[in-house]
Design a protein that fits this description.
The structure holds three protein chains of three kinds.
Chain A lengths: L2 H25 L1 H32 L6 H19 L2 H22 L8 H23 L15 E5 L3 E4 H23 L1 H11 L1 H6 L4 H26 L6 H16 L4 H21 L4 H15 L10
Antiparallel strand pairs in A: 1-2
Helix pairs in contact in A: 1-2, 2-6, 2-9, 2-10, 2-11, 3-4, 3-5, 3-9, 3-10, 4-9, 6-7, 7-9, 10-11, 11-12
Chain B lengths: L4 H25 L7 E8 L5 H17 L3 E2 L2 E10 L3 H14 L4 E3 L4 H11 L6 E3 L7 H4 L6 E2 L5 H4 L3 H7 L5 E6 L2 H16 L7 E4 L7 H5 L7 E5 L2 H13 L6 E3 L6 H4 L13 E4 L8 H13 L9 H19 L5 H13 L2 E3 L2 E5 L5 E12 L5 E12 L22
Parallel strand pairs in B: 1-3, 1-4, 4-5, 5-6, 7-8, 7-9, 9-10, 10-11
Antiparallel strand pairs in B: 2-3, 11-14, 12-13, 13-14, 14-15
Helix pairs in contact in B: 2-13, 3-4, 7-8, 13-14
Chain C lengths: L2 H8 L6 H5 L20 H19 L2 H27 L7 H15 L13 H23 L5 H20 L10 E2 L5 E2 L2 E2 L3 H24 L1 H11 L1 H6 L4 H27 L1 E2 L6 H14 L5 H20 L5 H15 L3 H14 L6 H11 L1
């Protein structure tokens, strides 16, 4: 894109945002700042869940629509782990592990036998998501499961300068998201496994020709991606509670984040999550009636003008 | 024409499939009207009110078990169906029960908007009697009522009678309303605000949130500093989320609850009991600590029959129980006679005085119940369980809340208003 | 290139005109298929049998079966047909077909009569239906224009997003769409003394439009436009190099599919008697995809087969297994079909016929046909 057009788009989108922000700040500064924090923290949660999704698609071209069910699975199991052991950190580990194992099973027993058939894999994941969600409801029931934050994250932080008080747990989502993002980046860019994954994204055939066990790399990636969904589930179980139906919500959110940011790009997922989280919370705060329509319109516009997302790479 | 093996097999297969489908159609069509009385039961077993739906089914089954499964010498056959709080799903499920399973009487649905859709459907089925489950939207019986749709429970607006005055008594002069955006909360908010506004209360902000929305951080951020309390009319998972997020965010304003906000299915969610709930006042057709002998017998019966249910029956269990009891009592009084387009049965329903665990219920001209409402407060018992104790009991609440019908306006997003 | 030129290039003889005209519904007819040396077509008997069955169905089935199973399958099948056409033959899997159908339904409710008088305009039913279909087709073209630069999974995403955006729009807007409650009492009219919502008349109405849609699609696929569309599906670059306007073809395909879905949407809305946000929600968007895939995307009849199986499952799974587990049954059936079949029910059918055909002594034509079936 030429420099002129780049500046054109930056100004077209940037000026209204700056103008609206100025208005918001002078109208009700507290609401504006709290909403900003809400948006970033929600974006963190979305990023954690969406990063697994984009990792799986980026490498294996597999749109795993059962990602939401893995979120639900991780969340429920984390809840029971926390109840059993009393430790939130153990619950996080349990959620990650269980989802990773299930993801691994799915890859090894089903997707390995359908190489290259993107649509068929997508349909299988849809079917799996329906089956898993219903099995979970059968086993666990429809009751709301609200996980408690660990005691050191419980309750509000008081006496903050402008915003008076803010939920400690919610605020902690931001550093958690950043830590996971950095860890993922380090994994992908500074380890051998990450190097193989990135090579596989660029050229699968060459990777196999170079003597790497591609199936093993695929399985590892799927496990990590699924585990991230489960981890997101445990984190979300505290903030948003676990109920049948959460899987579709989080799946839709992951889809939007990954499409806006670009499939296969972790940084894209971060950008997409920020845009989506902020748009959703500002919409809910200032124009609740049409806030969700607004967020999906953003998605449609991004796709219409950049069909692969902001940082997407061609298939 | 060359008859290859393939042709033969294919044509045979097609003929077999055709025969199977027509046999199925025949068989179902030839199903005779059997002596047992078939009652269809619809509740939300999926979606945001799934837990409430399960308890509703328990309440209905309790009414059947109290009669040992027989009414007026006929065996009771319950045919269950599920919906997810969406009107078209409810209508499809009802249609299957009425037209395919040929139920004689239809009990349900659970949710307000479903009730309005099922009422419209009932007008197309004059030979079946429809009795409400627990749907509580005012419009179901107030706006173009159906001649064969009966509601033996009071509606959402009636449930909130007296709460406005109780709020002002507690000193809440300014209240913010946070409610889900569909028919039932409109009715509840209308019931609360009609009285509250008339007595001088003010509602500066109303926040309508989508049903099933989970993130209340933005709504919480909008709570003005100067309101005295929050009127929270949310149900199911939404209520749990809101209450938790509000406490986590450091919110400390007292809460006035809608009827399903502090129902037993909410007070018993899996997770740490929130002490902040203690002291919440609400309006409801049920009060867990009501000490009348009929109610205590009902609670004991519920606990005996459903050891895996809640510590005390929820609002849904009681209301489904009332409606199913009405169904069966009506059948009893006409000795099971459903002939002649069920006319005798419907007359009996319209005229009877139903004895329920919380008082007597009669129907008005729109086949809507006139009954009892409680003002309740949440307290904690010795075991740490939360339950609702009775502050006040109001009898004979009618659908126009005591106002002359001309003055009464059905609740909507903008009605009533007193900023 | 016209169809005749194409056939010449591929050295394929066209079937006799008589056979084309009588190419009635159902049966695993493949398009295009190589001509047979003789005028014999074992499938013709099958066509006539199925057509007779369809026409005679209400006479021996109960009203419930006629209405809730038969008519619903036909209406849903028509909507799924639009997806089979767009996805199977155009290569663009769009999850917004139910959205287009819902737009048609809402427009009929808004321009015609419905329960909420404040919103509906009360125009005569035929005007409301025409406007509804026109607006829905226009919306489909717009959706196509937005989605045309995407491909494969991105098309699925963008159309899903458009569908969800529309769902939230009708959920939250009360002035025009009446929000959560939706439009109730949207009924077909009483014409010529017949109330068209009674089971038998409505079934024939749905059958008429389903047949019309099916024949239209089968015809369109053999026309120059249809052939070009399939070429664009297979290799857009080559088609572009040959001088075809790829974007225009694709958008037109979206519009055509939108028109089919709009007709199906009006029928489905009349069937339900209401249209609500739930009718255009995520689950229904995906259900249409499930129906199209269940039946098989290799031939237009697959959409109707999938619809029949889906409707039967929806209504009777609850009798076969515990009330509350019917979602599990639907998901499991779908999983089995997708895992073990290349192309849904039609894929199984043709795999079966491959098995059987190897028993015969192979002629050039039968072995060519077998290779085509096995694809």
């Amino acid at each position: 894109m030429t420099r002129f057009w780049k500046w054109f788009w930056v100004l077209l989108i940037g000026i209204p945002i700056v103008a609206l922000s100025a208005w918001g700040l002078q109208d009700n500064a507290r609401l504006f700042v709290v909403t900003f924090l809400n948006g970033l923290t929600l974006a963190s949660l979305y990023f954690i869940v969406a990063s697994g999704f984009t990792l799986v698609f980026g490498l294996m071209r597999n749109v795993n629509l059962a990602h939401g069910s893995l979120y639900l699975l991780g969340g429920y199991l984390g809840f029971f782990a926390a109840q059993f052991t009393g430790s939130w950190l153990l619950a996080l580990a349990a959620g990650f592990a269980v989802a990773a194992v299930v993801g691994l099973a799915m890859q090894v027993s089903i997707f390995r036998f359908m190489p290259g058939q993107d649509l068929r894999q997508t349909l299988v994941t849809i079917a799996l998501s329906i089956v898993i969600a219903d099995c979970l409801m059968w086993a666990i029931g429809a009751q709301v499961h609200q996980m408690s934050p660990p005691p050191w994250l419980d309750g509000p932080i008081r006496n903050l300068p402008l915003i008076r008080a803010y939920s400690t747990y919610r605020l902690s989502l931001l550093p958690i998201g950043i830590v996971i993002g950095v860890a993922l980046w380090l994994l992908l860019n500074r380890t051998r496994v990450g190097m193989m994954i990135r090579a596989g994204v660029d050229d699968r055939a060459m990777l196999a020709a170079a003597g790497v066990n591609v199936n093993l790399v695929f399985a590892t990636t799927f496990a990590i991606g699924a585990g991230l969904a489960g981890l997101g589930g445990v984190i979300g179980a505290v903030e948003l509670s676990m109920v049948p139906g959460e899987d579709t919500r989080l799946l839709l959110a992951s889809l939007v984040v990954v499409i806006v940011g670009g499939m296969g790009s972790v940084i894209g997922a971060a950008i997409g999550a920020a845009i989506f989280g902020l748009a959703e919370t500002y919409g809910l705060a200032y124009a609740p009636t049409y806030s969700v329509v607004f967020t999906f319109v953003i998605l449609v516009l991004v796709l219409a003008f950049r069909p692969r997302g902001i940082l997407g790479r061609p298939a | 024409m060359e008859l290859s093996k393939k042709t033969v097999v294919r044509t045979l297969a097609a003929v077999l499939v055709v025969a199977a489908i027509s046999a199925g159609a025949f068989a179902v069509g030839a199903f005779a009207q059997a002596p047992p009385v078939k009652i269809g039961l619809l509740a939300t077993l999926e979606g945001p009110f799934a837990a409430g739906g399960q308890d509703g089914i328990r309440g209905a089954e309790l009414a059947v078990r109290q009669r040992n499964g027989v009414v007026a010498g006929r065996k009771i056959e319950l045919v269950k169906a599920s919906s997810d709080a969406k009107p078209d799903v409810a209508v499809n499920a009802t249609r299957k029960l009425v037209e395919q399973d040929k139920v004689d009487i239809m009990v349900g649905p659970l949710s307000g908007s479903e009730g309005i859709a099922v009422k419209e459907y009932s007008k197309t089925q004059p030979n079946t009697t429809f009795i409400n489950g627990s749907s509580g939207a005012q419009a179901t019986t107030l706006v173009s009522p159906s001649p064969n749709f009966f509601r033996f429970n009071t509606d959402g607006g009636q449930w909130m009678v007296g709460v406005g005055k109780a709020a002002l008594d507690k000193g809440y002069k300014k209240v913010m309303v946070i409610a889900e955006d569909y028919a039932f909360p409109y009715s509840q908010v209308q019931g609360f605000m009609t009285e509250y506004c008339k007595l001088g209360g003010k509602v500066p902000v109303k926040a309508w949130v989508p049903l099933g929305g989970k993130d209340y951080a933005s709504v919480i951020a909008r709570v003005p500093k100067d309101v005295d309390a929050l009127a929270v009319v949310l149900g199911g998972a939404d209520a749990v989320n809101f209450l938790n997020q509000y406490e986590q965010a450091g919110g400390d304003k007292p809460i006035i609850g809608g009827s399903i906000t502090v129902s037993q299915d909410i007070l018993n969610y899996k997770g740490k009991r929130r002490d902040s709930l203690v002291g919440t006042i609400a309006g409801s057709p049920i009060a867990d600590a009501y000490d009348a002998p009929e109610f205590k017998a009902f609670v004991a019966d519920y606990k005996k029959n459903f050891p895996d249910g809640y510590p005390s029956p929820s609002l849904f269990a009681l209301v489904y129980y009332i409606n199913m009891k009405a169904t069966l009592d009506g059948l009893d009084s006409v000795k099971g006679d459903l002939s002649g387009g069920q006319k005798k049965y419907r007359d009996a329903l319209s005229k009877m005085t139903l004895k329920t665990p919380v008082g007597d219920v009669k129907l008005d001209a729109n086949r809507q119940a006139i009954g009892t409402t409680f003002i309740t407060e949440v307290v904690k018992d010795a075991q740490g369980n939360l339950y609702n104790k009775v502050l006040r009991k109001i009898d004979n609440v009618n659908q126009t809340l005591g106002l002359p019908p001309a003055e009464f306006k059905v609740g909507s997003r903008d009605e009533p208003n007193c900023p | 290139m016209s169809a005749a030129n194409w056939r010449g290039a591929m050295n394929v003889q066209p079937r006799a005109q008589g056979a084309n005209a009588a190419a009635a519904p159902a049966g695993a007819v493949r398009a295009p298929r190589p001509a047979r040396p003789r005028f014999e077509n074992p499938l013709r008997l099958l066509h006539l049998v199925v057509l007779a069955f369809l026409i005679g169905y209400p006479w021996f089935a109960t009203p419930f079966f006629t209405y809730q199973i038969g008519a619903q399958s036909l209406a849903l099948g028509l909507i799924a047909l639009s997806l089979t056409f767009l996805g199977g033959y155009g290569g663009m899997i769009s999850l917004a077909q139910m959205t287009v159908a819902g737009i048609a339904g809402y427009m009929v409710a808004i321009f015609g009569t419905a329960a909420t008088d404040g919103v509906s305009l009360g125009w005569p039913w035929w005007l409301a239906v025409l406007i509804g279909i026109a607006l829905a087709t226009g919306a489909a073209a717009f959706i196509g224009w937005l989605s045309v630069r995407t491909e494969g999974i991105y098309t699925i995403m963008i159309t899903l997003a458009i569908g969800v955006a529309f769902y939230y729009l009708v959920l939250q807007n009360y002035a025009v769409f009446n929000g959560f409650q939706g439009e109730q009492k949207v009924f077909p009219p009483t014409l010529a003394g017949i109330y068209w919502r009674d089971p038998m008349p409505f079934y024939y109405l749905a059958l008429f439009w389903a047949l019309a849609g099916y024949l239209f699609v089968v015809y369109l696929l053999r026309s120059p436009f249809g052939i070009a569309l399939q070429g664009i599906r297979d290799n857009p670059r080559r088609m572009h190099a040959l001088g075809f306007n790829v974007t225009a073809h694709r958008v037109t395909a979206y519009a055509v599919a939108g028109a089919i879905a709009a007709v199906g949407g009006v029928l489905f809305t009349w069937y339900n008697g209401l249209v609500t946000p739930g009718s255009v929600g995520t689950s229904w968007l995906i259900n249409i995809l499930i129906i199209a895939v269940l039946g098989g995307m290799r031939h237009p009849v697959g959409a109707f087969l999938g619809a029949i199986v889906f409707v039967l499952l929806q209504n009777f799974a609850i009798d076969v297994i515990d009330r509350e587990r019917f979602n599990l049954v639907i998901g499991a059936v779908f999983l089995v079909i997708v895992l073990f079949s290349q192309d849904g029910l039609l894929g199984w059918w043709s795999a079966l016929s491959v098995r059987l055909s190897t028993q015969r002594g192979e002629t050039r034509w039968s072995s060519a046909r077998r290779r085509l079936y096995a694809r």
